[in-house]
Amino acid sequence: MAAATGLKAITKAFGEFKDVAVNSAIAGVTIALEEILNRTIYYCPCVEPSEVAGCNTSSNSIASKRQCTPMTNYAYGLAYMIVPCLILFFFMAASTPRLWKLWTGICTKSPAARSRKEKITWTLAETFGRSLIAPVSWVCFALIDGQSYACSMTPLPYDVGPGASYESCTKVAQSKIPFHSDAYRNNRSVSQLYGWAVLGITVFIGFIGYAISRCKYPLTYYHAKYYDYYRQYEEKEFDQEMEAKAQKEAEKNVLTFMSENREKALWDQISTVYSFHRNPKNVALYSYLHEFISKEKSKKNESVLDPSVPS
Prior knowledge:
The protein is built from 14 helices and 2 strands, in the order αααααααααααααββα. The chain has helices spanning 2-16, 18-40, 62-67, 70-94, 97-103, 111-114, 117-131, 133-145, 147-153, 169-173, 182-215, 221-258, 264-270, 288-305, and strands at 277-278, 284-285. By secondary structure, it is an all-alpha fold. α4 packs antiparallel against α8, α4 runs antiparallel to α9 and α9 crosses α11.
């Protein structure tokens, strides 16, 4: 009984702060993914051979020398921070149903539907704001970890001296336990300072922005909760009804087609790749099978209405 009561309380609390919980989960998953990548595939790739004391740069290692430049470190560090941010941002935006509900067919909607600029602007702002959670989490954790920034800003990230024996500069860069230089460690400390600053500023701005948006919200607290519940249940019921309706209509069309022996030309017609369009009466057609059944039904109706056509 106590366990059930506790579970019910947790579920209720989760419902109260669902957005916060979801956003926190997104940030947590992003940080966990970055930590896994840091431990598995990340390493600062190159060093400058001419500046590494004791590094064996034999004349037959030309390919390694070409790769070992500070610019490669700079590009690698920036790419490690920026490219995943872009991927996460577009993934988060693309996985938001509200964005596609707004955007799908907007070019063909009526002018009245397209002219609701405030609603469009607010939806885009809300979508992109939520889509920034994962990218900002990635950048903050990357800065706090410090490896990417230190790799980008340190021309010579590795020390090779007593106690460190490597066959070549490439082996230094690929070492699982490299001997980092003092400059690398200093830049990593600077990165951590930037990371905590970015994290604090982002949380502050996010909280202020959310507070302002709630202050200007047209509904009261409980009315807003009712509004959210209604939208959820309406979406759920609409999805269920659409699925049931689509299944019944598709089943009826398939049974109608299969009830007779059809010519190969008809089989070829319904097997062709389809593009959505409407018939002359502006009725939506969802497949070539649907189009064929609609035409067949129209012909039968016309034959029944026209007394000169034998039934």
